[in-house]
Amino acid sequence: MKNEKLKLCFAASSGGHLEELMMLRPLMGRYDSFIVTERTLYEASEEGIRFYYLQQVNRLEKSCFLRLLANAFLSLRILSAERPDVVITTGVLAVIPLCLLSRIWGARLVFIESYANVHSPTRTGKFLYRFADRFYVQWPELLEFYPGAVYLGGIY
After folding, report:
1. N or C: which end of the chain has fewer CB atoms below 10 A?
2. Do the bridges between strand 108-112 and strand 31-38 make them parallel or antiparallel, or are there none, so unpaired?
3. Which Pfam families match (predicted)?
4. What is the average per-residue pLDDT within 55-83?
C-alpha cells in the first residue's frame, strides 16, 4: 500500500548512477514516486513508475552550459507538475539543476554518494553536500570528506 502523503522524486544520470538508484525500488513502491534521468538511446522503464527525461550533460563538451540551462527549464516543468516532497539522488551533473531548484521549491534533498568512490568524493557530492538535508556515503572512508554524512553501508 502506498503512502499517499509523501511524493518522492528519484533523480540520477543514466548508466551506473541510475542502476544504483534503482536499488531503492522497494522505497519507490511504498510512496508516490517518479524518476528523472537523462534521455539516452534506450529508455528506462519501471512498471508503475513515471519517468521524466533530461538532456545528457558532459562537462567536457562546449554545449555543457546550454544543456544545464535546458535541464533547469525541464526541471521547473517537472517540479511544477509533480511537486515532490523529497528528491533522492545519486547524481551527477545533469540532475544538479533539479536538485537546486527542488530546494528552492521547498523539497528536501537526499544525496547518496556513489558506491564506486571509496577513497575520494565526487564533484557532484562535494557541490551538493552543502544543499542536502541528508547526505549518505557508502564507504566509511568518505566520512573524512563529509563529516555530517551518514554511513549505513552500501546500497547493493
Report:
1. N
2. unpaired
3. Alg14
4. 95
Taking the model in full, what pTM does it have? 0.92
- Short-list 126, 90, 121, 97, CA closest to 13: 90
Between CA 152 and CA 148 the distance in angstroms is: 13
Residue with cell 545528457: 56
Q: Which of 53, 59, 60 is nearest to 13 (CA)?
A: 53
CB atoms within 10 A of CB 155: 16
Cα 116 from Cα 87, distance rounded (Å) = 21
| Cβ count near 119 (within 10 Å) | 9
What are the tens digits of pLDDT across the range 73-111? 999 999 999 999 999 999 999 999 999 999 999 999 999
- CA distances to 46, 116, 140, 147 from 50, in Å: 8, 27, 34, 35
